[in-house]
Amino acid sequence: MQFLSPCVLLERVLSVFTWIALLGRPLRASLPLVQRPPSTIHTRDEFARLNANLDKEQLLEKAYVRITKKPETVLVSGGESFELRCEAIGVPPPIISWSISGKPLLMNYDNNIIEKLHNIGHKTIQNGVTATKLRVPCAKKRHQGVYSCHAGNAHESVEANATVAVEGQSRSCSRKSPSSPIITMWSDGRFENSGLAVQLFCRASGMPDTQISWYDEEHRLLNHNSKYEVLENGDLLIRNAQWDDMGGYSCVASNQYGEDRVSTFFYPTEP
C-alpha cells in the first residue's frame, strides 16, 4: 500500500469527515440493534485506506486482537432478562459487535480514528482492552440461538460464541417502551505514550435520547474542560495526555428513566 504523507492524510480527512460524523451517533437500545454505515462504497474505501496509512505511520507494535473474556452460555425463562459480556485486547484497540446465528445484532463501526488523526506525525502504542455487554430485557423464543462476539481492529478479527436457550412460555413484553440507557461498548483499559491524544470508548443506547457524561477519579465533570472532548459517539478524547492524567475515568449514560455507568483506567507511558 502506498504511503501517504501527513498532509495528504489530512486532505483525506475531508473526504471521510461526513461518514465519521455519521458513525459517531449513538446506537438505539431496543432489538434489533442493526446499524449500517452509509452505503457509498467509495467513502468506506477511503476511510479504510486512511485508517491503514495512519496505522502504518504510527504503530510501534505489530497489530493483533485477542479475546480475553468469552460470553457464557445462558439458560433463561421466557419473559426474563439476560445479559452477555465479552472483552478483547488489541493493538489498535478493538471494537466489538454482536450477531445471533450469523445475523448482525449490535454493530459498531467507528474505531479510534479521531485519536489517530490528532497523533499524525507521532509513534503510538494504541494498546487497549475493550469490553461490551448485550442486554435483552425480555427473552422470547426468537432470542435463543448462538450469539457471537466479534472483535476487530481493521487488521485482525476474532470471535467467541455462546448459546442462549429460552425455556417455558414467554410472558408479554412491552413494545418499545421508554428505557434507561445501556452502555454497550467501552474501553476497560488503555495505554498510550504521554504527550499524545487518547480516545476512550463509551458507546450507549437508550430511548429517549441519552446524555453522556465523563468524570475523572476525583468525580470532576470533564465535558466542559478544554483538555477533553466528548465525541458525538460518546467517546472521550484526552488531548496531550500527561502523567497527571493517569487514573480512572467514569462514563455515565443517562436519560430521564435512569442511568448506566462504566469505568476505565488510562496509563500514560514514556515514549
TrEMBL record:
SUPFAM superfamilies: Immunoglobulin (SSF48726). Keywords: Disulfide bond, Immunoglobulin domain, Repeat, Secreted, Signal. One of its GO terms (molecular function) is cell-cell adhesion mediator activity. InterPro entries: Ig-like_dom, Ig-like_dom_sf, Ig-like_fold, Ig_I-set, Ig_sub, Ig_sub2. It is found in: Secreted. Residues 65-165, 181-263 form the Ig-like domain. The keyword Aminoacyl-tRNA synthetase does not apply. This is Neural/ectodermal development factor IMP-L2. It comes from Ascaris lumbricoides.
